Amino acid sequence: MSRSSKRRREMAKQVDSTKLYALNDAIDILKAAPGTKFDQSVEVALRLGIDSRKSDQNVRGTVSLPKGTGKKLIVLVIAKGDKVKEAERAGADFAGSDDFIEKINSGWTEFDALITTPDMMREVGKLGKVLGPRGLMPTPKAGTVTTDIAKAIQEIKAGKIEFKTDRYGIVNCAVGKLSFANESIGENIRTLVNAIQRVKPSTAKGQYFVAFHLSSTMGPGMKIDPREIEIALKGQ
């Protein structure tokens, strides 16, 4: 039996699949699970009561996590002229135009976020087959197609993330690292929940937050008591 398989078996023993966990208890279980050589991400999965087949019910937005993501994000800016210099001064890891478009077109995606200026979107849009499946396509709604390059870089570096539902109506997001204090993880989750609530489609009927799961990169997944959602919404 491999070490990873043994770890998963040990972790599975700690979780009752029929139980609804309090958020703080679930975080404690993730932290107590057999360790890894890296600081794992804490991840939430929120299933929403929407019809993902209807475009007007797809949920999408951005939120700045107050405690950050705990991850050093690599930012690429595609722009021309003075905007390249602005990007470099603001802390972009990569900045340029045609050279990076060619690299991406060849399959290069060694970055976490792509910011571009409106005048470059015609060329960047042609990279959809590479960027789209990886969730890297910039959009005005996410604030990644903008003339204010410096602000966009600073927000992403500080913990701004994009969230959106998949075809099953589920929002999957990393909300910090296991090394974070429980209170910090909880604060990030509450902020995310409230951001999702604010963009609830007007055509969505019935219960909006249907299910809430918490996990870590290599840890068990747990069903969270839905009352935690109510607490989060009342808290902010």
Task: Explain the overall architecture.
This protein is of the alpha/beta class. It is built from nine helices and nine strands. The chain has a four-stranded antiparallel β-sheet, with helices on one face. A three-stranded parallel β-sheet has the order 4-3-5, with helices on both faces.
List keywords for this structure.
9 helices, 236 residues, globular, alpha/beta, three-stranded parallel sheet
In short:
With 236 residues, the chain is of the alpha/beta class.
Protein topology:
Blueprint: H1 3-13, H2 23-32, E1 41-48, E2 60-64, E3 75-78, H3 82-90, E4 94-96, H4 98-105, E5 113-116, H5 121-125, H6 128-131, H7 149-158, E6 160-164, E7 170-177, H8 182-198, E8 209-216, E9 222-223, H9 227-235
Parallel strand pairs: 3-4, 3-5
Antiparallel strand pairs: 1-7, 1-8, 2-6, 8-9
Given as residue ranges, the uncertain stretches (5+ residues, pLDDT < 50) are none
What is the tally of helical segments?
9
Cα(first) to Cα(last) distance is 47 Å
* Secondary-structure content class: alpha/beta
Helix content: 25-40%
What value does the Rg take, in angstroms? 19 Å
Overall 3D form: globular
Largest sheet: 4 strands, antiparallel
- Total DSSP E strands: 9
* Strand percentage: 15-25%
